[in-house]
Design a protein that fits this description.
By secondary structure, the protein is of the alpha/beta class. 37% of the residues lie in helices and 22% in strands. The chain has 17 helices and 21 strands. Strand 8 (131-139) and strand 9 form a beta hairpin.
């Protein structure tokens, strides 16, 4: 049976969800995509989870998407001689390349690329923004700072440099090793961390070579400044609100989230809203009302997916977190206000035959009360066009490529099924109606709208629309 909800759920795996029995419960509760976080765990851990997911996929006889999330460059201070150290507001503090353990007046920052990009007056944020330093003077191996916001600093805390484009690749040597490993395993999506500019996506695409979809994590203000170019180059987007909320004023994050979701929808690229969505459920069986509202907002905005991180990776209630997220999504999608909101931000179709056919399919399905839009696709582009339209019926995607089916588990409203391609109009109609009935999407006597490309099997050539009755 297809999901009851159109908005998908991404669940991060970790120690709390290593058991294959728990994976099955997460899937049954509503998880569609599973995230392997390469900031944690060994290759053996990720290999075991990947194998367990593929085994689950065979058991449930439905495509399951797997997303690998690369760590990216982690900028951190060094160690401190006396352990956690207090630095006082208004005092001076130096960062340098000296590896000597730090004190209340200086610390090692083993990243010469930061010093090379700094300007006087720039701010440095330490430990997720809990401490703020302002650069007074700098050189190739140091930065003399004023402590704007003091506090306790300890070993290897992270450093953010808002407003500065750093001359570093988002792919470290570790990331390159992890990427090669993940592609060999057969992951469906690669999430690229620390994206600063469109060139970062181009670099990742050269390495991936089409073997997986490339997803850009938007967590840097510099990326937001060029967001349309980045969306154009990638296959999907994640609004990574954790680091984004550190480097941008928190009051600007909600509007930035809405802008990214709208731009992604307009481009027909799947978009995930992530970070701390149900964070209290790491240790509590129920979320706060504010968290429930946060998830609902992402669904009202039209996000393709919402993501759980620590809630399912290391929390005490992973299955409950997926269950309540699914309930929130279902409640929003059944709200009478939901459909007018979706329609109010509908993207204009491009001036192509494929977009014209897809837009017409949405309208025809609504007008005649069809039960589904059925798309035949090889690359996934036909189905993504249908998802961009945000129709008020499910999208049944028929593809002969299991890789395409797995990637499309991320797309809004899509129920992918792997089946051999068709070779005639008669077979196109018969197979679409039969599979819609078998999958529980349409019953005998109900109608479906079918889109495909002729010649059959030609990627991106959507040029046929057919309205058909499902027979018993």
């Amino acid at each position: 049976m297809p999901r009851l909800c159109s908005t998908k759920i991404v669940a991060t795996l970790g120690p709390a969800t290593a058991d294959p029995a728990v994976l099955r419960k997460l899937y049954e509760a509503g998880a569609d995509i599973f995230r392997l976080n390469f900031s944690h765990g060994s290759h053996d851990d990720h290999r075991a989870r990947h194998a367990a997911l593929r085994a689950l996929e065979r058991e449930v006889d439905h495509a399951i998407g797997i997303l690998m999330d690369l760590q990216g460059p982690k900028l951190r201070v060094g160690t401190f001689a006396g352990g956690p150290t207090r630095i006082e507001t208004g005092k001076r503090f130096r960062l340098d390349l000296d590896k000597t353990p730090g004190s209340a007046t200086r610390a090692n920052l083993p990243h010469p690329e930061i010093f090379a990009a700094l300007e006087d007056g720039a701010d440095l944020l330490v430990d997720d923004g809990k401490l703020r330093l302002r650069v007074l003077a700098h050189g190739p191996d140091f930065a003399d700072c004023e402590v704007v916001t003091g506090g306790t600093i300890s070993d290897r805390k992270g450093v953010n440099v808002p407003g500065v484009v750093l001359p570093i690749s988002p792919l470290t040597e570790k990331d390159r090793r992890d990427l090669a490993f993940g592609l060999e395993l057969g992951v469906d999506w690669v999430a690229l961390s620390f994206v600063q500019r469109p060139e970062d996506i181009a670099e990742a695409r050269r390495l991936v070579q089409g073997r997986a979809g490339v997803l850009a994590k938007l967590e840097k203000p510099s990326a937001i400044e060029r967001v349309e170019e980045i969306i154009d180059l990638c296959d999907a987007v994640m609004v990574a609100r954790g680091d984004l909320g550190v480097e941008m004023p928190p009051e600007t994050v909600p509007s930035t989230q809405k802008r990214i979701v709208r731009l992604s929808r307009r481009a027909g690229k799947p978009v995930i809203v992530a970070t701390q969505m149900l964070d209290s459920m790491v240790g509590s069986p129920t979320p706060t009302r504010a968290e429930a509202s946060d998830v609902a907002t992402a669904v009202y905005d039209g996000a393709d997916a919402v993501m759980l991180s620590a809630e399912t990776a290391s929390g005490s209630y992973p299955v409950e977190a997926v269950t309540i997220m699914e309930k929130i999504i279902e409640s929003v999608e059944h709200d009478p206000l939901y459909r007018p909101i979706m329609d109010a931000v509908q993207a204009e179709p491009e001036h192509t035959a494929a977009d014209a056919i897809t837009a017409a399919a949405r309208q025809v399905a609504h007008t005649v009360g069809a039960k589904a839009i059925v798309t035949y696709t090889t690359s996934g582009s036909t189905t993504l066009r249908a998802a961009r339209e945000r129709p008020d019926v499910p999208i049944l995607c028929l593809t002969e490529r299991v890789e395409t089916a797995r990637r499309l588990t991320l797309a809004w409203g899509v129920h992918p099924v792997v089946t051999a391609d068709v070779r005639s109009f008669e077979e196109m109609v018969e197979k679409a109606c039969r599979i819609a009935r078998e999958q529980g999407i349409a019953a005998a006597g109900e109608r479906v709208v079918i889109t495909a490309g002729v010649p059959f099997g030609t990627p991106g050539a959507t040029n046929v629309l057919r309205l058909a009755w499902v027979e018993g």
